[in-house]
């Protein structure tokens, strides 16, 4: 693995004609069964309501009850993973009361017993999702599902848990949702809620509306050809197929009457007439609008950038094609971004060689600081000695220094810009960098128009309401939820603590807070052993934390910050 520090990158690509193959395009009019084509027949899904059983254990054969411990085995503030014979549960004692719920985070299956218990909720040690111990409901993200909650009783100083066997096996629970009333009566080109973008923000917005009892029409539009999927996996698990990383199966959207229009690109928004205009000429009227279009990868500005084996990773097809072309070949990755480093890590065991070109001498220097950046650099070099960090092109990549890197495939990871070009004449407030400006309720300057996700700047409570852009998966989820609640006039303000993670070469870095503009880094632990926690400070206050092999410290700090308590530099030195 070669890391190349460069001042300037020039890429020229030469590919034998026989190696070129056109990416398969979906036939016109053929896509998801949930797609509504302008010139096609509208298909509506209206399923019968299913009666909700008042007794969650209505099937005696599905119930297990077991004694799991003595009442004195747990102190207040303690958690224990207990086995009921056919599955495990998380037993919690807080405020003198016992609670029981699923023991695995529904997101990626982290053991919650290793997480952080604080003021009535448990925070996942891996990615920061939070669950209410009384209800099992998800309160912070990532992930979509809540946890099953189990009955607890005390008899003769023993603690018993009564649970559904099915819930013990699935370890997840989808909140009850409303359905659309009389969907078949709607005009195809009119909806109550229109969501442009089908990433995490858009999907959580739609789900939250249904969870809150909203029973009018919801339409989601996406440029993608797929239903919403787990986008972070595009760089972490590159050979995953769309159905493997789908956030919800297509039956879910049918059941809850969330309509999805795929391969639909927004071209303009007419705020006066409350209408969205799409690239193919289709128009849709709305009552409430959420713009959650995310960002667009930056492209190289050099000769050869349009050649078939130069990629930005934007879709599952992009990721799959890179893996196929890179196997046993020479790969050059331009940009030591999160995406660039994760792609490099994934391809190292598959490609003949991987070279990574970066302007900075140290990866992630601006985000993590130089010392942590060097530790990340060490991870790559120790894990794969053949992987090198170097200085500047494809069939070959030619660097300004004159150095030539052999390349059969090039992946570009040099950052992204907000996908908001279609809003320039809309009257919606856009800042100088192209981000949509919203308030704490995810509202734009236009009544009834909300925005969420990577394309927005919003006031971050953690940083004294400074307007920031936080392009991370967890934050997009929360943006979508806040937007939905305020579409329903709940008056809910966002106050979540940013939480992100990256995984490469078998190591994970967790991060919480917002460290932009930090002026010092306090390191605890051992950088050489790759077991450390880094506290990022600004003006004597901790504004962010990162760790490797130090769980659950990042989740602990996130809980402190979420409670509104300040952490001073002297507290961590």
UniProtKB/TrEMBL annotation:
Biological process terms in GO annotation: execution phase of apoptosis
Record-linked CDD domains: Rieske_AIFL_N (cd03478)
UniProt domain Rieske: residue ranges: 66-161
Protein's UniProt name: Rieske domain-containing protein
GO CC terms in record: mitochondrion
Lineage top rank: taxon: Eukaryota
InterPro entries per the UniProt record, alphabetical: FAD-oxidoreductase/Apoptosis, FAD/NAD-bd_sf, FAD/NAD-binding_dom, FAD/NAD-linked_Rdtase_dimer_sf, Reductase_C, Rieske_2Fe-2S, Rieske_2Fe-2S_sf
Keywords: 2Fe-2S, FAD, Flavoprotein, Iron, Iron-sulfur, Metal-binding, Oxidoreductase
An example Gene Ontology molecular-function term: metal ion binding
Family: Belongs to the FAD-dependent oxidoreductase family.
